[in-house]
Amino acid sequence: MKSYDVVIVGAGLAGLQLSRLLAESRLRVLLIDRKASLTQAVHTTGIFVRRTLEDFALPEDCLGPAVHDVSLYSPGRRKLDLHSPHEEFRVGRMGLLYERFLDSAIQAGVEWMPETQFVECSKVNNRSLLTIRKSGAPVYVATRYLIGADGANSRVARALGLDENREWIVGLEEVLENVPLEGPPRFHCFLDPHLAPGYLAWAVHDGQQVHIGVGGYSARFDPVEALREFRASLAGILDLSNASIVERRGGRIPVGGVLRHIANSHGLLLGDAAGAVSPLTAGGLDPCLRLSKYAAEVIVDYLRTEKPESLRAYSGDLFRARFVSRLWMRRVLATVRSPELIEVACALMRVPVLKSFAHHVFFGRGSFPDMGNELVTEPVV
Ligand SMILES: Cc1cc2nc3c(=O)[nH]c(=O)nc-3n(C[C@H](O)[C@H](O)[C@H](O)COP(=O)(O)OP(=O)(O)OC[C@H]3O[C@@H](n4cnc5c(N)ncnc54)[C@H](O)[C@@H]3O)c2cc1C
Prior knowledge:
Bound molecules: flavin-adenine dinucleotide
Shape: globular
């Protein structure tokens, strides 16, 4: 049986980055994913925010043009335009980006096993014995530490006896080409409790591609029907007459905040598996990068010292303290169902003080906390 220091389940952004960092620290790392190719079944729009773009060197050719402008629409389609002098958003070309991250991980020494599904694990002394399924056939491996980077519905979380996501919204989108762009690249956001109950409908056009999507609580809408209706309603905003669909994407987005119990002596959770998504904006890419960087430090220290104290810093309770206001705003978004009330709230956003709040929500730099000092000292946004 092959044995590793760390086995990582899930080659999304979180698992890919962590695997490289651990291999660079000279640990023996196995990365598995049930997908045959990372360009298949991408489920994210891939919008990276300014703070991520500034702090992480993402390959230039994996990012679309910068977006400075946002239009926020009320249910009655009254528009509020917001502009930032900064490059606020860039849409990642995610299949290419995942492949680039994988190449770097393999170069750093990571062993990569595609088409491999995590099934279960048993704990034996200070190791975990894993049953994985490679192209349908069972394979057994041993590891000192197991990482669940396997997304919102994490099987690893269950196997390790760690917390699991209980609240999520679903998102569905189409990626289109051949849509003319009038004016600068723009992120159109629509508050509409019918098309996107508890979240947003969006159309982001960066000059090369357009992503049109809806998100919301699954019990309250039919995402397929809502997306069809939303797309049909965009005449006058985007000219879709010659548009061709190049991809369909979708999935669950956990919005209950970072889970509390995300690490134990056998393993830890990362990214969506840890609930590390902004409960307000549903952005999870920045948390993937920040949390995996921090997890790498914690894991290296733990495997070196074998002291359980090393894992105490990787506690969801520490992170949750940073998300109080965003969790509170999530409750409000989940509760407000009346289009009239949202219409009034949108009208109020024209008042300068509330417009600056909207500006802050879209362009603010409050993202997932960097660990260490910032975790303790940065104000909650
Ligand atoms: C429609 C939609 C749009 C979004 N748009 C944005 C956005 O624009 N910006 C933003 O910041 N966030 C966005 N998010 C959220 C963001 O995409 C996620 O937070 C982020 O991608 C999570 O990455 P991850 O690495 O944790 O998990 P994932 O990307 O979900 O990766 C998990 C991997 O684990 C693998 N896996 C799962 N189970 C197993 C198993 N048993 N065995 C082996 N492999 C397994 C899967 O195949 C997958 O590759 C969006 C989410 C959705 C659904």
